[in-house]
């Protein structure tokens, strides 16, 4: 005897519900991602954040020793907030003054930003866009 | 010369618009010559796009820096091959490559189908023309590769990360894949537009889909290999939005490939299939949008440009159009066939689809959430690895298991007793393997252990299938084993080719599990001086000396290490940096030693080279990682087997579709 | 210059169908009539049913499908095949009848 109602709809509905449940449970426990902030927004933050900014000044120190110290400034916007970052771990090749990058870490009470080791990601420079070629 | 390029693209735009307008009119009014004319417009569009592309390539080879694009992505001392690949080194050139592939595919698809599916082709033409028109508009009106400047003495050079063989071919394969999905999409829409309900569009695009899907898969593996060897952070996939942009359409296409088989065998899931092909294509558009518009911060980000809003509009139009067409034809698409049992091949394909789409959508959410969050709450977030790893396991591991179960369950209804009989051997082998693995220490990672066990199960089922098939054939024909095997595969290319592809995916899963769940990493607490050693796993590495060399366009610094394992001398490894003079950049050059027997890699990064000659090293041991690349080769082999033309099948389809007016009107008076 | 040549070539290609047949006997694009659509669906159903039958027999012989499962499913598969063939025969008889009417 062929069944008159198809279990397909029920299976799909239950599966979708199950997937959604797993998803919601996961995101409510682990959170929907680490907030991404700029240096000027950092002062109002506690906890782990993802800091995005542009390197200004001269970096100093050893990332595999006491830590590489450099200053990050807001990439865009009117407020030019700055923060001192102490970074340990691998430094991507593209790191240099003027480069935009992202690091994960927390702000210390004295205002410096201490990072999760190895969490630096540099954004590829504007090389992919038509950039001013060297002067003729 | 730039004028010729610009003119050629404007011609392409005109031709594509003509293909849409004239093609649409021809389809609606039933005008034969107008339909032919619209088709010719697509052929011509390929021609003029080819001319534009050749102009750009010629400019690169001639070092014509009056082209702003050439000046921005090439230099006089750039090696020949990279001058060619610099074509797609930037946004404008990548768009032109997209268009070139699209117009080529459109011309070929329409030409191949011209006699076989005329009333379908007449609607496919305007759809393909519309997609091409959108891309051409971007190239003509928004982001042109033919902008001119006062030519500088030398160009800015090509980004060093792109100067390697992988980056020469990776984008090409990706585009062959992305764009390839436009063809089944166009045929699906064409079928809906013409009001047909049969599966002609599927039959006509089956090979297109497999080719596009294979190319997209290979493109991703090439990209992963590039990330592994060139970017050199120790991994091959970072869940970067641009990487996800290629994975999502691939997952949707995988689901589509499977569900289409259900429509073929049981006539079910017609609406679902059209939805899936639409999803795959819209995701490939969305993926291109993500990569090109710079809207998501990623290490690949192209700085925000004006094409973003246009692209987004284009994606929205495609989605709305797809949904509208499906909605319109919904009544005609519904079928009587129903799912009879939750334990059947149809059902297992359905589970496969649900898992694939679920994985695809969670990746989509993870990629899009940062953008949405910024747009809605004004605050951006970063979705990290743990999110993706979690869902990859939750959905991926059951998928792995299903690969072994699906092909062996009967259609319509299978009894649990029957299943037990079929699976008792593979399950037994898998459990034995699992126990052995625990004894060997694989219990340190539960997901890894589960992956290995499921993988063994699937490989056992595949091996058993080949054995069973061959002996059944021999029982019938008495052939020798190799002949029986060859004929078995030859007569059932799709089935056994599919098994080979599954085997490739299993190898991929084993490689990924081994290199991520069971890898080890060591970093010395202080930089190594000459003569000092580092130990990891069974290996001992001793830093011997530092070498400096002038390459074609870079200064190459290499730290040389002696590698030993146990008492054996395994030779030397070099790791260091390249300093590119023109581009003013430094790139990481890692040292990899692949062990052919165990498939594991010894992976060395020279993190930092100090003035005094000491070097800070970071060393990984990645078990089984080379299975990932091997899987790529097996994958291609399996796809080729399924693609191979089958004369009997072709004849049967030809007969079925022969007695229709589309071919009849040629013979009619 | 080259651009002009390209433009001319392109326009020629697009106009070709009209240049080749300035006054054709018929400019109608063959369209699929409803009857033909139904026949196509029926033929696909027939091919599907016969394939399923063949595959079931082959799977049973090869040992992939047990005797019990085979017995459960074979009835439905044979029925589908018979029905598909009947539908197709009915259509063909119909068109033959139409043919003799207009002849």
Question: Given the C-alpha coordinates, what overall shape of chain A results?
Answer: elongated
Rg of chain B (CA only) = 27 Å
What is the helical fraction of chain B, as a range of percent?
55-70%
Question: What is the strand content of chain A?
Answer: 25-35%
**CATH class descriptor name of the domain at 36-127 in chain A:** Mainly Beta
Main sheet strand line-up of chain A: 2-3-4-6-5
- Per the CATH scheme, the topology name of the domain at 36-127 in chain A is OB fold (Dihydrolipoamide Acetyltransferase, E2P)
Net shape of chain B: globular
Distance between the termini of chain B: 50 Å
Whole-angstrom Rg of chain A = 23 Å
Give the structural class of chain B.
alpha+beta
CATH H level of the domain at 36-127 in chain A: which superfamily? Nucleic acid-binding proteins
What does this entry show, briefly?
Chain A is of the alpha+beta class. Chain A has one helix spanning 8-30; strands spanning 34-37, 49-62, 67-73, 82-87, 100-107, 113-115, 121-122. Helix content of chain A is 17%, strand content 32%.
Give me some keywords for this one.
heterotrimer, B: 669 residues, alpha+beta, 5-stranded antiparallel beta sheet, 4-stranded antiparallel beta sheet, 10 strands, globular, disordered C terminus, C: 103 residues, mainly alpha, 3 helices, elongated
Describe this structure as you would to a colleague.
The complex is a heterotrimer of chains A (about 140), B (about 675) and C (about 100). By secondary structure, chain A is of the alpha+beta class. Helices cover about 15% and strands about 30% of the residues of chain A. Chain A is elongated and about 70 Å long. The termini of chain A are far apart. Chain B is an alpha+beta fold and about 675 residues long. In chain B, about 65% of the residues lie in helices and about 10% in strands. Chain B is built from 21 helices and ten strands. A five-stranded antiparallel beta sheet of chain B has the order 3-4-5-6-7. Chain B has a four-stranded antiparallel beta sheet with strand order 2-10-9-8. In chain B, strand 5 (about 555-565) and strand 6 form a beta hairpin. Chain B is globular, with a radius of gyration of 27 Å. The two termini of chain B are about 50 Å apart. The mean pLDDT of chain C is about 80. Chain C starts with a helix and ends with a helix. Chain C has a domain at about 35-100. Chains in contact: A-B, B-C. Chains A and B meet through helix 1, strand 1 and strand 7 of A and helix 3, helix 13, strand 1, helix 14 and strand 7 of B.
């Amino acid at each position: 005897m062929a069944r008159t109602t198809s279990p397909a709809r029920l299976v799909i509905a239950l599966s979708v519900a199950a997937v959604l449940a797993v998803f919601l449970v996961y995101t409510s426990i682990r959170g929907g991602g680490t907030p991404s902030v700029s240096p000027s927004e950092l002062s109002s933050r506690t906890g782990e954040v993802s800091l995005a900014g542009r390197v200004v000044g001269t970096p100093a120190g050893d990332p595999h020793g006491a830590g590489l110290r450099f200053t990050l400034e807001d990439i865009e916007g009117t407020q030019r907030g700055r923060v001192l970052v102490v970074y340990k771990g691998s430094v991507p090749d593209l790191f240099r003054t003027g480069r935009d990058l992202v690091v994960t870490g927390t702000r210390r009470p004295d205002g410096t930003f201490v990072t999760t080791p190895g969490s630096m990601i540099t954004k590829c420079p504007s090389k992919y866009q038509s950039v001013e070629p060297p002067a003729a | 010369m730039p004028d010729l390029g610009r003119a050629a693209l404007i011609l392409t735009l005109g031709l594509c618009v003509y293909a849409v307008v004239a093609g649409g009119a021809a389809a609606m009014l039933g005008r034969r010559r107008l339909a032919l004319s619209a088709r010719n417009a697509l052929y011509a569009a390929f021609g003029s796009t080819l001319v534009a592309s050749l102009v750009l390539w010629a400019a690169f080879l001639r070092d014509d820096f009056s082209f702003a694009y050439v000046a921005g992505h090439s230099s006089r001392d750039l090696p020949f091959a990279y001058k060619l690949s610099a074509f797609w080194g930037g946004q404008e050139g990548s768009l032109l490559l997209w268009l070139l592939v699209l117009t080529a595919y459109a011309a070929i698809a329409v030409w191949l189908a011209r006699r076989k599916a005329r009333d379908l082709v007449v609607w496919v033409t305007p759809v393909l023309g519309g997609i091409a028109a959108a891309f051409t508009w971007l190239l003509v009106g928004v982001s042109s590769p033919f902008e001119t400047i006062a030519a500088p003495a030398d160009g800015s050079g090509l980004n060093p990360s792109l100067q390697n063989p992988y980056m020469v071919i990776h984008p090409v394969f990706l585009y062959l894949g992305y764009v390839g999905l436009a063809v089944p999409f166009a045929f699906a829409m064409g079928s809906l537009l013409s009001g047909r309900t049969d599966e002609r569009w599927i039959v006509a695009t089956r090979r297109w889909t497999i080719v596009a899907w294979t190319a997209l898969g290979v493109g991703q593996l090439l990209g992963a290999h590039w990330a592994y060897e060139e970017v050199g952070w120790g991994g091959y996939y970072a869940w970067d939005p641009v990487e996800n942009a290629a994975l999502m359409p691939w997952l949707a296409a995988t689901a589509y490939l499977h569900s289409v088989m259900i429509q073929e065998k049981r006539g079910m899931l017609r609406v679902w299939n059209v939805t899936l092909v639409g999803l795959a294509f819209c995701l490939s558009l969305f993926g291109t949008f993500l990569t090109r518009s710079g809207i998501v911060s990623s290490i690949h980000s192209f700085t925000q440009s004006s094409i973003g809003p246009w692209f987004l509009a284009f994606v929205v139009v495609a989605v709305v159009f797809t949904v509208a067409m499906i909605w319109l034809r919904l009544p005609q698409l519904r079928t009587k066939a129903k799912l009879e049992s939750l334990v059947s091949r149809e059902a297992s394909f359905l589970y496969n689809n649900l898992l694939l789409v679920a994985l695809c959508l969670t990746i989509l959410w993870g990629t899009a959430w940062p953008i949405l969050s910024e747009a809605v709450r004004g605050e951006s977030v970063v979705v990290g690895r743990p999110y993706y790893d979690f869902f990859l396991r939750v959905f991926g591991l059951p998928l792995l298991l299903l690969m072994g179960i699906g092909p062996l369950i009967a259609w319509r209804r299978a009894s649990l007793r029957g299943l037990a009989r079929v699976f008792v051997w593979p399950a037994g082998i898998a459990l034995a393997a699992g126990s052995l693995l625990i004894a060997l220490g694989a219990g340190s990672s539960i997901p890894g252990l589960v992956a290995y066990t499921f993988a063994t199960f699937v490989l056992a089922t595949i091996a058993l299938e080949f054995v069973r098939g061959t002996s059944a054939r021999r029982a019938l024909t008495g052939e020798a084993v190799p002949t029986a095997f060859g004929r078995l595969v030859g007569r059932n290319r799709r089935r056994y080719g599919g098994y080979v592809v599954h085997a490739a995916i299993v190898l991929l899963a084993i490689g990924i599990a081994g290199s991520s769940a069971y890898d080890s990493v060591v970093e010395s607490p202080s930089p190594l001086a000459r003569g000092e050693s580092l130990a990891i796993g069974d290996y001992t590495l001793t830093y011997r000396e530092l070498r400096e060399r002038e390459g074609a366009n870079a200064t190459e610094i290499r730290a040389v290490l002696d590698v030993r394992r146990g008492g054996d001398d395994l030779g030397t490894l070099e790791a260091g940096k390249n300093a590119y003079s023109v581009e003013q950049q430094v790139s990481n050059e890692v040292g990899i030693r692949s062990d052919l027997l165990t498939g594991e890699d010894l992976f060395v990064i020279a993190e930092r080279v100090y003035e005094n000659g000491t070097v800070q090293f970071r060393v990984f041991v990645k078990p089984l990682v080379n299975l990932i690349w091997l899987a790529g080769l097996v994958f291609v082999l399996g796809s080729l087997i399924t693609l191979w033309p089958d004369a009997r099948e072709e004849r049967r389809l030809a007969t079925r579709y022969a007695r229709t007016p589309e071919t009849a009107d040629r013979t009619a008076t | 210059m080259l651009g002009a040549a390209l433009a001319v070539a392109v326009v020629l290609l697009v106009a070709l169908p009209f240049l080749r047949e300035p006054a054709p006997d018929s400019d109608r694009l063959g369209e699929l009539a409803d009857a033909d659509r139904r026949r196509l669906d029926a033929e696909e159903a027939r091919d599907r049913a016969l394939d399923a039958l063949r595959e079931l027999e082959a799977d049973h012989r090869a040992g992939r499908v047990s005797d019990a499962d085979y017995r459960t499913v074979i009835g439905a598969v044979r029925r589908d095949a018979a029905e598909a063939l009947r539908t197709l025969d009915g259509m063909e008889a119909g068109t033959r009848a139409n043919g003799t009417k207009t002849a």
